[in-house]
Specification:
The chain has 124 residues and is an alpha/beta fold. The chain has a single domain, classed as Rossmann fold. The protein has a 4-stranded parallel β-sheet, with helices on both faces. The radius of gyration is 15 Å and the shape is globular.
Length: 124
């Protein structure tokens, strides 16, 4: 059997984690999630370059884990060129799924306060 990597992307609060966890429970696979995985790394660089390095590192980890089981990844992944690099680095059967949720709904679900911080200019 060839294991798959499914990479969920979308806005913060779009439902990526909820969908990933439900799928993992149903199919018995590993989940790499943006809400928890960053705790494993000491570099919390949120610059464009830092995010790219982080996401490409996660892709390498997903590829390695996929040798043993299916993997679901759940990350914002905001840049198209980085998404392309991620897909190029994963097994050929990997897929990327955009969870499309309106900004209003994402803001209503904003438990981290990211949208309020962005509106105030605290983060970009």
């Amino acid at each position: 059997m060839v294991n798959k990597v499914v990479w969920f992307t979308g806005l913060s609060g779009a439902g990526k984690t909820t969908i990933a966890m439900a799928a993992a429970e149903r199919f018995g696979c590993e989940v790499l999630d943006g809400d928890t995985i960053r705790d494993f790394f000491s570099n919390h660089d949120f610059s464009r370059e830092g995010r790219e390095r982080h996401l490409l590192g996660i892709a390498k980890m997903a590829r390695m884990i996929s040798k043993h089981t299916h993997v679901i990844c759940s990350f914002i992944t905001p840049y198209e060129d980085v998404r392309e690099k991620i897909l190029d680095s994963l097994p050929d059967n990997a897929i990327m799924v955009h969870i499309s949720t309106s900004l209003d709904v994402c803001e209503d679900r904003d438990v981290k306060g990211l949208y309020a911080k962005a509106r105030s200019g605290e983060i970009t």
